[in-house]
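Problem statement: downstream parser choked on a complex file, so we are re-checking the raw output for the adenosine-5'-triphosphate run. The parser issue turned out to be on our end (a line-ending mismatch), but while we're here, posting the original submission so the record is complete.
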Amino acid sequence: MQLCENANIVISKLEENGFSADIVGGSVRDFLLLKEPNDYDVTTDATPAEMRRVFSDFKILDTGIAHGTLTVLVNGEPYEVTTYRLDGEYTDGRHPDSVSFAKNISEDLSRRDFTVNAMAYNPRRGLTDLFGGREDLSARIIRAVGDPHRRFSEDALRIIRALRFASTLDFSIEDGTATAIKTTRGLIEKVSRERIYAEWKKLIAGVGAYRILSEFSAVIEVFIPELSGMKMPREENFNAAAPEIRELMLFAVNGVSASDYAAAMTRLRTDNKHRKYGEAVLSGAVLDASSELALKLLLINYGSEITEGIVDLKVALGEVSDSVREELAEILASNFPYRLSDLAVTGNDLLYAGLSGSEIGAELKRLLLMVAEGQVKNTKEELILAVTKTR
Ligand code: ATP
Ligand code: MG
């Protein structure tokens, strides 16, 4: 295993100062899978104060200091360096009551969630694999470290993390771990919703998402009760869809209304942009999108981004054919006027034509619809004529 230069700098800096240091967690897992890790975590016996001295020549961020973590920037790349940790008792199933430092790396590794995430690597000492992580990695298995029932009871976020890793890595879940997931699933209600949603987002985007959602729908229903009795969309369409469309497919197939979807997203504390996009796409998806005129009306009412989402969702649900996507692209490429600003008249022109300020918005929209329906051309003369004719 060949560590990158920056990782070697972090490890050797600590070692030169008499400390022990290892790359740990997801970065070791990704390395063994020959994947570029997202980020590097380093675990060490140095305390935060000692780390600060070791890395005095480096830029340090101390956002995680309460958990014994310093982020060291090495050539601009962040390394999270954490003192060996031993979590305290969990009485709320969510946060350890205290964080104490562990004496050695094996204590630190044994508090980690899954065997494939509980390995450490040091260039001189090689791999530290106390729980058979390497074997599980080659057998493509997610297995809890220690007694799964206890580990999920301590921290119920791990339940969703198990599904998330099984989905993104396309692994299966070991039988005992899967059973414990099903029996402890109710504890998810105690977990912070932001953290649930962060894992859900990764879960649903994973290659194995369809399989995991089908097998563990009872777990999903705990935090998204709107999907109770979960019906699944068609597998090949689900797999072909983008993550945000996959989420909407699940809600649509289960007959959840746009406003109930929005309520679910509010409960899960997603950002407004995500919620509003999904709500608009779901509300538009009940409308027709199968003709040129229908697509033009969608564009006028929803704009291009939402209309593209509506079409993607309807294609994914098998309600319209794939070719509707190209049809929409052609309409957009033809410079079809669908925004008020695309009209050959402005609000001012309508004021001159004798409309009052409060009438203008609705009138411009009506003109757009008339242009879409071919009743009038998008020229200033014709539009002004269309305005005055109705008065
Ligand atoms: P990713 O590639 O998504 O970053 P990761 O494995 O690095 O995956 P992180 O959430 O970054 O996941 O966590 C880093 C490591 O910390 C994990 O590999 C695991 O060892 C440990 N860990 C994270 N969350 C938990 C948890 N809830 N319980 C126990 N260990 C955890
Ligand atoms: Mg990580």
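For whoever reads this later: Residues 292-316 form the longest helix (25 residues).
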